[in-house]
Amino acid sequence: MKFTKLLIVLIALAVFSACVNRPDTDQQVNPGGYTGERNLQRNASTNTHESGENEQHSGENAHGLTEVPRPPKIVEMMAQRGAQDEAHPTLRIVEPAANSAVSSSNVKVKLEISGDLKGYKPMKDMTTGMGNHIHVILDNQPYEAYYNLDREFELRNVADGEHTLRVFPSRPWHESYKTEGAFQMVKFTVRGGGADAGKPATTASGQTMANANPSAAPEGKDMQKSTAGAVDIAKPLLTYSRPKGEYKGADADAIMIDFWLLNARLQGDGGEYRVRYSVDDGEAKYVDKWKPIWLSGWTNGKHNVKVELIDKAGNIVDNGGYNSTTREITVSK
Fold this sequence. Notes:
Strand content: 25-35%
Number of strands: 19
Strand order of the largest sheet: 2-4-7-10-11
CATH topology: Immunoglobulin-like
Radius of gyration: 31 Å
Order of helices and strands: HHHEHEEEEEEEEEEEEEEEEEE
Structural class: alpha+beta
Number of domains: 1
Distance between the termini: 89 Å
Largest sheet: 5 strands, antiparallel
């Protein structure tokens, strides 16, 4: 009898203990705090898709492009060049002279380079097809590389009218030198040159320099078409440089965006301007320090890259249509 009573008491104590230790499911346990490894794993599992979307918007643009560090092969090339990357090349446009009139559709370009060059010299390595060079830009068209200043560089079939010529030195991988005096620009006018309006302007070697009778793209407003655009060299000016052309294989892994700025300091450098870029009309991104960026994650095919100079209010800075430039590139991995 005593044993039976003792057994009943023990069973009752066990039941009471189980009831006391059971968590109340009607209350939130540890609100806002650590919920245990199991709950963290569950939350991570249920939020995986949402988290991935947030990462895409914060670290990538709408097309999955991600800004990455300077590619290792470029870092290696920089190391091999020694002091050249610290050079301060200065260019001077000898021909065509500023505000000159040219009576031919063939326009000779003559440049002089000086300054603290530290071994920098424009010249193509015939083995690699690369080398230091000068970017030569007619109006607001894609640049052509000028490798040997001792050889004549000629623009052919240049249409009648006013034109701009912009030049600046570049490295073998097309990154521009951004030092004082490196960038030069002149305006000149072709009169009675007799160019074929149905054909593009080219170099002597046949490289296209400008479309037939090109006009600058308007900056959100109507403007009279002009081969040069109403460009004021005293105003803030962005010159689009890269990307350009076709990128194949490993060269398409990380593609550089580079530009030249005149009379404009970016916010990250203590100024008031920003550079805005987008790819295929996707999400706009911003550059606040004047240096190139590399983007990875490109898909095969054609892409439109837009680079713009904007003021602190987010408006494109008006300067002849040049401060908003779009180029088409091709990626073939």
